[in-house]
Amino acid sequence: MKKRTKRAIKSILRFLGVVFLLILLAFFIQRTIGYKIQESTISSLINNLASERAEKEELKEEVVNLKKQLENKTLEANTSEQKNTEVVNDAHYLQAKFPSDGMYYVDSYENTFYTDSMCTKPIESKPRFMSPVIDENLKSQNGFSVKALRLDDGSICYCPMDTLTYLVIESE
Question: Which of 115, 127, 131, 132 would disulfide-bridge 98, Cβ 3.0–4.6 Å?
Fold first, then answer.
């Protein structure tokens, strides 16, 4: 029985050794898999962080661009407002310089009038004037003296200083 007992003990010890080795093997496998899982998790977190940083930089650039656009729009709005103010001021100036009395006038000599102060672009149709006042104290960009008159649409036309102009009330 001693032999049987010894054999049984040896078998049990072998069995326990195999079980112990399997437990160790399972422990190391679990540790290795866990390490790889942790490594892949860390690597995905690093990738996410990098993409979030890139996205943050893109958002910063977009904010800078939007600020520039806002500044440009504000500048445009201010410029537009200033132009509107200038147009109103111009209208007041024109009304003061060339007051309208409700009558329309024509040039009795049927002279040629121009849309620009250098007298290069003639008005094709016979002009009607909303004011009998003629401003004779103007110098054009080319240095010539010109006269200015206000048309019925509110714009200004010009003629050379030496043009004899005589405005009469338009007959219907």
Answer: 131
* Closest of 159, 98, 160, 91 to residue 129, by C-alpha: 98
DSSP 114: B
Q: Backbone phi, then psi, for 64, in 5-degree steps?
A: -60, -45
Which of 169, 35, 141, 99 is closest to 158 using CA atoms? 141
Strands, E assignment, 54-163: 105-107, 135-139, 145-150, 156-160
End-to-end Cα distance, the chain: 149
Tens of pLDDT, residues 31-70:
776 666 666 777 777 787 778 788 888 888 988 898 888 8
148 in Cβ contact with 135 (< 8 Å): yes
For residue 110 the two structure tokens come to 């049927």
Residues 129, 163 contacting (CB under 8 angstroms): no
DSSP structure class, residue 122: B
Token duo for residue 154:
């509110």
Which residue in this structure is represented by tokens 């399972």?
26
- Given a contact cutoff of 8 angstroms between Cβ atoms, the answer to whether 159 and 134 are in contact is no
